[in-house]
Amino acid sequence: MKITDLQLEDYGIYKKVSIKPPQNQLVVVMGQNESGKTTLLHFIRDMLFGFSRGNWKGRKGNMAFIRSNGDTYRLFRHEKDTCFIDAANEKYTEELPELWWHGLTRSMYEHIFAVGLEDLQGTRLLTDESVKSRFFMMQGGDHLNDAKEVVQKQMGDLLIASLQGKRKINMLLLKKRELDQEISLLSTQETKFAVLQKRQSEVTEQLKTLKNDLKNKRDTYRALGKRLGAWEYYKKAKEIKRGLDLSKEVKVFPSNGKEQWNKLMGRMKVIHEQKEALQGKIDSYTPKQKEQIIPWVGLEQELEQLYVDLGQWKQTLLDGEDLSHQRDAWCKEHSHLGYTLSLWGEPLNPSEEWKSINWEDGRLLAKGVSIRQNELHFWEQREPHIEELPDIQTDKGIITDEKEWNAFENNAIRLEELIREESNLSKNLIILRKEAEKKYTIWFWMGFVLLMVATAGIGAFFAAFSGTIALYIAAGCLGVGIFFLFINAMISRLKNNKLHKALNAQSALAGERENIVDELPVEAPESEEDLQTFHNVLQEMRSTFYQTQASLQALSWKKETIRQQEETHNQWKAEGELLKKAKTEAINRWEEWLTHNKLPVVPAEKLSQLQEEWQKIYASKGKGKIIDALIEKNKKQLQVFEERAICIINVTGVNLSVHPETIAGIYEENRNRSLQWQSISEKNKQHEVFLSEMKKIEKDWNTCQKEMQTLMDFVHATTAEEFAERVTAHEHHDQLLKDWANIKQDLRFYAGSDEEYHKLWTSLQTGQYDTWMTSYEQLKVQIEEGDIQLAALQKEAGALENEIFRLAKDESITKKLQERQEIISDLQMLLCDWMKYKYTDYLIAQAQKKYEIGKRPAVLKQANEFLQAMTANKYSLVVNEEGDDVVLVDKTHNRKNDRIWSSGTGDQVYLSIRLAMALAFGKQVETLPIVLDDIFVRFDEDRQRQTLRFLMELGKEQQIFLFTCHKRTMEIAQEVGKELQTGAFIRLQSGQVVTDFNTSSNNL
């Protein structure tokens, strides 16, 4: 599968961004911090495996891809909704891992296909069962792993290694332990049985006593209840009996006597009222003459008119005084108003004039000041933070430069080789010195014989014993003999030559060793015995160097970050200076406006308060002007009234003050005396009429008294109240007799019998109602408490009886023993099942190992090829059968374990393994895009260049995304891409693709 289009519709900082990566080139994506690089990386993973839980809200996007068989699809993810369509627009809702990738998990993808720096260290994935099932086994090996997980789950359902486990075997073991405890407790039941019997006897005795006491109280309670219930009947009976007694005393009474009585009562009441009213009138008056009432006459009309206006005159005087007080109060209030207004804080001058103010101008100026203040406030809040640069101290003897470290490491390795070579030379010298010198070898004797033959041949030739043939033979033997003698000479000098070469080599090695020892910052080993100590020192220095390198790298990144922060902070300060200047100008314009309008200098945010307080002052000043106008009007009205009063007082000839009260006194005196005379004149006439009427009323009163006394004599009554009672009883005599019979019958029914009736009547006649009620309430409470106590005792007695009965016939211990035996049987069956699952798990594990045999070597072989390509054949890879130990072998066949690797070498090793596993998955299941995130942090430039060259070549077959935040890495990648004519390059900035280009002919 290869991605052809990424549509980031709404994902993090990306909004409607489209990226179309090529299929057969390495895609290098570079973006600094906050550019969206990590967000894009997460988007690719989310498209393949779905949004993670809790991170789906508001996210949506789609991705187009093509499979290895050429089919094209587009995948859509909108929050929780997921689907993909094929080229024919047929819709599918399955997830890709379940449909095509044999259940590949997101976590496994992120460790194999999406590799970050933290994922490159370690080989634990090689031993993970889920990894082996999909990467090292044959097609379908994941089914074995799934079967193993099912078996292990069934084992876990039966038993878990925990005391608090809730599995079947755990629960049975827990239940067996509880049964053992219960069986132990059942042995103590005999003692409990005796204690229960004793308590049962005590409870029975208490119940008997309590029941007798409650019975007596209930009897008394019912008796008192009867008395209290009959009390109302008794009171009613007493009233009826009294009415009967009164009716018996009336023997003869007229049939209309009551009507006559009522008429007399009404008539006498009217007469009495008339008499009292008339007597009061007669007593209240004595006849007088007119001369005694009015001593003068005159000026009535003038006085009457002025009196009519007297109220208005008084009100005008009061208004004048009130206005004067208001004026004084306003002056004080207006002056004090300055103290009450927080923005003035000084007394106000009542005579000062206040002009109108254009508050809209002030509001605009205040708004400008507020805007500048807000801008300055938000500017202060946006102050960029500058981190402090950490102080990293390194010892003087610690190597920090990578080239210096490489030189040191090469010297150390060379020193080891020199020590071993010196040791080998020393051993060879000892062996050479022990060898015997050989001056005459077989070659000497063979040469000597041939020389003798050559001499004989020459002699025979010259002696004419033979022809030229003898000369040729002699020449051949001479040449061969000389050659054999030369070989003998070489062999005889071989030991000396070897010794000389060995000594020269030893001297050269010693010189080279001394040069290396002078350059080493640590104590050099003298012999092979010191190499182990030297290795330990090297390992410690290597660890210190890598730690220092990591610290220096982090420090470099931190310096760059701080530089950017300082640059941002300087921009922030410059912006602040402009804002402060603008704020100062706005405040100056605001204060000039305040001064121009004679207003106190206050902050701009208090404009509303200033306007409100100014309006209070302006309103107070208006109030003062209104009071002044009213005072002037009042003075004019008073002047008119005083002129009219002076005219009246002068005409009367009396020396009086000009005041409303004076005029009111004159008018009132005149009116009173006039009215007094009219009243007296009328009263004189009425007085004679009242005297004649009084005589007639006295006569009617005496007649009524005689008639009333006659009626009272019929019923033998002395007072009117007694008369009314006797007459009423006489009229209702028959009804009272019926009521008396009914009440007696009700009391008999209530009592139950005549005997009880007489007892009840006798007790009711004592009249102790309050005492009965108190006793009744007390008995009610005592009975309720007794019932509660009785119920508790009865409940306890029942529980005791049940427990005694249960203990007497308890067969619990037998049942518990049977239940325990059943649990043991169940445990045996379940343990057999658990052992079956355990054995099955073992068989599946063995089968998995068999399956791994075919795939693991191929994967590791390809990883070895990848590593050789990345390191220019400097190293080869060896992994043990378990997959937990990785060893490197260099060109000289020296083995290096992971403890002495450099960090960059380790990253290359684990990167090659993961790439090989990813490609193995593609061959077995389906190819997936590989995503590499900042894997070059610990690489030097040469190693980056080698690895990028390898990735460029691999990217022609496998789609690979390489993310980095380092500009130099991007530059190296472009150089390598230009060299190989391949590669695609993308630059990101703030969620946008700002540069989209490559070095090849294919553009994104």
From TrEMBL:
The keyword Methyltransferase does not apply. The chain crosses the membrane at residues 442-463, 469-491. Residues 193-227, 776-810 form a coiled coil. The keyword Transmembrane applies. Keywords: Coiled coil, Membrane, Transmembrane, Transmembrane helix. Residues 1-187 form the YhaN AAA domain. Pfam families: AAA_27. This is YhaN AAA domain-containing protein.
